[in-house]
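Can't paste images in this forum, so I'm doing it all in text. The chain is below; anyone willing to post the predicted structure tokens underneath?
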Amino acid sequence: MKKDVLLSHDIGTTGNKASLYDLDGRLLKSFYYPYETFYPRPGWTEQRPEDWWKAFITCTKEVLAASNIQPGQIAGLSFSGQMMAAIPVNQKGEVLQKNVMIWADHRSHLQGEYIKKTIGWERFYYLTGSGMEIPLYPVAKILWLKENEADVYKKTYKFLGVKDVLINRLTGRFVTDFSDASNTGMLDLKNRKWAKDLIQELGIDFEKLVEEILPSQTVVGKINKEVSEATGLLEGTPVILGGGDVACAALGAGVIEEGSVYNYIGSASWLATATSRPLFNTTMRPFSLCHVVPDMYVVQLAMFSGGVVYEWVRDQICKFECEEAKLANRDPFELMDELAASSPPGSNGIIFLPDLRPGGAPHNNLNARGAFIGLTLSHKRGDLLRSVLEGITFNIRLMCDAMEEALGFPFQEVRMIGGGSNSRLWREIESNVLNKVVVILSAKQEANSLGAAILAGCGLGIFSDFKQAAKVFIRVKESINPNPEVVAVYNRLLPLFDNAYQALAPVNDQLSSLA
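Text version of the structure:
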């Protein structure tokens, strides 16, 4: 049987998506399985690794069942995974906690202060490329475990990333790739090896980190009999390592050339560009990661309040639209967009600060909070909904300006991917707020899994290089040009948006201390 299908798994923050691609880059079938995130205390964000495994098995079985693809057609499988976890496992690869910290967990603020005091902020930043709040990085999470769950720390054989936990379960190997390693706060970014001096200065046991950091396209093993029986995949199917979601999305969006840019709007949102070297700016703090493309980097600015904010609005404000959508067999977001489109650019004078899940660029402030500003009795729900989309996008604009400053030149277009790109209204708002051409790809919501599939194809030798694979897999569907009149409206509002954040920052600091 001809092996002409690639399987990829995108282990995201809200769920796992399995996708099947043919060798011409066509998406044959995908299946999504959600899992729960737990918030036991302020600043704590946890998931259950067993849920990732259940999602992997379920998605694999369902995507095979829903397609006409036979297991023998699968040439190999690979992963894109959420990043910045430090999951403790024993020598058998068994996770030592039922719930583990994921990327958004920032309980380790005291450990972050210790790292700044011990290492110094600028040394840490320029060595590791890690520009976000230090408590978010695995280096701080490991220290928190050492100080607060000493028994778990002591029993830990290795700390693994999310996708690496699944890789271990599939192959028995304790490995990671350069993209995931570069987002731990522990990699010497320029030399692409663990920053051993920094790690030992902080009192972390160096031997608890994986010994092998490998290129993302590495074939790390094959499906064993047990996994074959659980998933329906053939025993012996090659497993390709894969990479972190930011870098996989860059590959899946075709952002592999110097200065090309994409904006992902999922639960979080980020702006990222491909470069041949790390970029630094101590004010806005873009962070640099190793690309899944060899010898390249992804420079990123990320905000945590992306599509998750619009989901919150759906659940808390738009219950009527949810009921109507259910009766009409439509997506609630479609009805919300129709209502938002009834409001003009600028939302009739409402400014929305989107920091419902604080952290990340453009302000790097874990105490930030969300707010509607300028409300009057004349405002309607359509104004509120449009202001939410505009507020999220204003934050993206601030990241865009900072990225251009770091690059040293402006860019003309942004490739918009992720769930947010499904909204025609949001695409238009983004083009006008950023004053850029917004490019939509045929695989706009599948960029992470598409990138992982390309990695599988390159690792198996199906493609000679990443540029060839990108030409085969990536297709432009639409380009949206900014409207000068609407751009002028948003340019007037942008300073007010930024001033509103600055004015409320002291109030939010006090509210945070009360919480």
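The domain at 5-241 is CATH 3.30.420.40 (Nucleotidyltransferase; domain 5). The mean pLDDT is 95.
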